[in-house]
Amino acid sequence: MELPSDQELMRLTALDDRHAFEVLVLRHREKAQHYCQGLIHDADMAQDIVQDSFADVYVQRAAYRSDFSFTTYLYTLIRHKAVDYLRKNGRMEVTEDERLQLAMGSGGSPEELFIAKEYKNQVRKWLELLPPNHRQALYYYCVDELSYDEIAGKMGKSVAQIKIYIHRARKKLQKQKGEKSDE
Fold first, then answer.
1. Quick one: 57 exposed, middle or buried, by C-beta within 10 A (0-12, 13-18, 19+)?
2. Residue 106's pLDDT band (boundaries 50, 70, 90)?
3. Phi, psi of 61 (to 5 degrees)
4. Which residues neighbour 87 within 8 Å (Cβ) at sequence distance 6 or greater?
5. pLDDT averaged over the chain?
6. Rounded to an integer, what distance in angstroms lies between the CA atom of residue 47 and that of residue 3?
7. Which of 84, 59, 57, 55 is nearest to 71 (CA)?
8. Rounded distance, CA 134 to CA 129, Å?
9. Residue 169 and residue 133: Cα distance in Å, rounded?
């Protein structure tokens, strides 16, 4: 007898089949906890984050799109919650390789890590070409995920100035990326 796929279990879960959801949890919980523990290095908190992620999956069950892998969906939720946890607890001081693993999700192969690291180095070079205010505003917006108001407060600028900085920074980065891909 063939076991139902994750997509089929999510379809049934969306129809309020709690047994199907339990099967999903049992199927993925252990690996998900191991993955999360690798991100945050705290077994108890990893268990809490994974449990919270599964709760979110259940609450948002009707919104799940079956054209995406369930594990990708679940691990993306876990990764976001792990990053939030690390930020809130001042523990975002992780190694370069750990940052790449957080960015890539499951960590990927050595080749994928190398490519991601090379791309990150290229982006860093492009960012260095930006004026300091543009670079700082873009960093706050994209990395720290601050609102325009929060960025304006941190930088002592108006919201309109922050919008202009971010717009110009993006335009310059797009131009840099376009020139790089033409080489």
1. buried
2. very low
3. -55, -35
4. none
5. 81
6. 26
7. 57
8. 10
9. 9
Nearest to 46 by CA among 17, 74, 81: 81
**Residue 47 contacts by C-beta under 8 Å, 6 or more apart in sequence?**
33
pLDDT in tens, 43-59: 999 999 999 999 999 99
Q: What is the rounded CA–CA span in Å between residue 124 and residue 59?
A: 38
Q: What are phi and psi of 175, to 5 degrees?
A: -65, -45
CB burial of residue 149 (10 Å; 0-12, 13-18, 19+): exposed
User: For residues 24 and 101, what is the distance between their CA atoms, to the nearest angstrom?
Assistant: 25
Rounded alpha-carbon distances, angstroms, from residue 155 to 144, 147, 173? 14, 12, 21
Residue 181 pLDDT level (bands cut at 50, 70, 90): very low
Q: Using the 8-state DSSP alphabet, how is residue 116 labeled? A: H
Half-sphere exposure of residue 175: CA atoms within 13 angstroms, side-chain side? 9
Token reading at 38: 């690798």
Q: 165 is written with which tokens?
A: 């900085």
Most confident by average pLDDT, 102-106, 117-121, 163-167, 179-183 = 163-167
Tell me the whole-structure pTM to 2 decimals. 0.52
